[in-house]
Predict the 3D structure of the following.
Amino acid sequence: MQDSIRDTSKTGPIHLSRDGRTVEVNVQYLVKTFGKHEAVKGVSFTIGKGEIFGLLGPNGAGKSTTINMMCGYLQPTSGDTIINGFSVTKEPMKVKRNIGVVPQEIALYKDLNSMENLEFFGEIYGVSAKERKERAEEILHFVGLYERRKEPVENFSGGMQRRINMAIAMIHRPAFLMMDEPTVGVDPQSRENIFDTIEKLRDQGITILYTTHYMEEAERLCNHIAIMDEGCIIALGTLEQLLAMRDQNREVQRPHGLQELFIQLTGKTLRD
Ligand SMILES: Nc1ncnc2c1ncn2[C@@H]1O[C@H](COP(=O)(O)OP(=O)(O)O)[C@@H](O)[C@H]1O
Ligand SMILES: [Mg+2]
């Protein structure tokens, strides 16, 4: 595929890519090997400021490993990520203030209530006591759980706990938020709330990386999408570019957008 959005420039902090996006995140040739297994095989892409960028791929494709390297949880075997001009591997402390991560596994103190969880994580991020409280209340309204702020989160459904997990990632007002499969195992009501929250964040100018194995979620939310399989990006572009690519490849009748494209490229379905 002609790649009109990839920008592998290693110079300068924020720059314009060839199609005019202001690049906030520049992922450069990330590789991760676990023993003999190469889980991520040289992944590069850029995310424009204020974009919802979708990293789409089946289980085991390497999405979480990629995110974990992008946020500094995991040291890459090689490659780096530049976020807002700072290198994740060389200047992690400068990066951490600007990013929030919603991990694939829910991480909360279940015997604490949501306010306490948010204030606790806010303190870890160095948010002042006064701001922590204000910000915690604001975000609980945002994710629709303010009324239940005094209940221990162990009483919450999986979807509600996921929303608190998202709220925690926003307590320090990061400009760039990474979300790893936030809708897996979530009830439909929480799923809608999560989509609404993401759209509100986008409207506030927050840049978002969203991973999923549900192609319809990527089609609904994301303006730019990278499709990953077996550690590699196999297609990259705007939703329109990817769907046009599907149309070019199409030999028979059109069924479904990204799902069909994925099948054409790999011979597998996303949920194989
Ligand atoms: N800590 C680890 N040790 C060994 N193998 C791992 C580890 N983490 C992930 N893997 C392997 O790397 C591949 C990619 O995993 P992952 O990034 O979790 O994929 P995804 O998030 O797309 O489902 C899988 O084959 C997985 O088994
Ligand atoms: Mg994963």
